[in-house]
């Protein structure tokens, strides 16, 4: 009997601790889960599944120093990128095609995934942040 009581107490404590997860945290995890799928379907054929890039053709996204400029990253996803760029000291110069098929929400999910996985962030980048930036860089 005592054992069973102990078990139920543990269960209740566990349940309340896990429900402490904030809505923001749950949303961040959802964005990451979706972001992984969007990445696999739209980016990984060039940048590879682990974001490591491919030789001198496709730059890495994992630990890329280009990530410091989040606005540029948001814009290049939608509108592509042309001309020479330097990523982690290596030169690349090959056009990245625009990805107009991705909605603002999908861009936000991607950005959340990329920055949590490879950019040292532990936060959500929501549609409210992404949409005004996409409007600014509209081409
Ligand atoms: C057809 C291949 C291709 C696809 C698909 C592609 N990229 Fe790129 N990406 C490139 C190339 C090539 C560059 C370098 C462009 C240059 O040289 O100016 C680049 C550059 C980048 C950069 C900036 C440099 C760096 O590596 O940090 C980021 C970030 C990026 N891509 C993210 C993405 C994301 C996210 C997707 C999916 C939505 C994507 N790319 C899809 C080829 C691709």
Secondary-structure blueprint:
Elements: H1 2-19, H2 23-42, H3 44-47, H4 70-79, E1 85-87, E2 90-92, H5 104-117, H6 127-136
Antiparallel strand pairs: 1-2
The structure holds heme C (HEC).
**How many distinct domains?**
1
**What is the radius of gyration computed over CA atoms, rounded to a whole number of angstroms?**
19 Å
Per the principal axes of the C-alpha atoms, what is the gross shape? Answer: elongated
Percentage of residues in strands: under 5%
Structural class: mainly alpha
Reported for the largest beta sheet, the result is: 2 strands, antiparallel
Q: Give the CA-CA distance, first to last residue.
A: 70 Å
CATH class: Mainly Alpha
Strand order of the largest sheet: 1-2
Mean pLDDT: 92
Helix content: 40-55%
Total of DSSP H or I helical runs spanning 4+ residues? 6
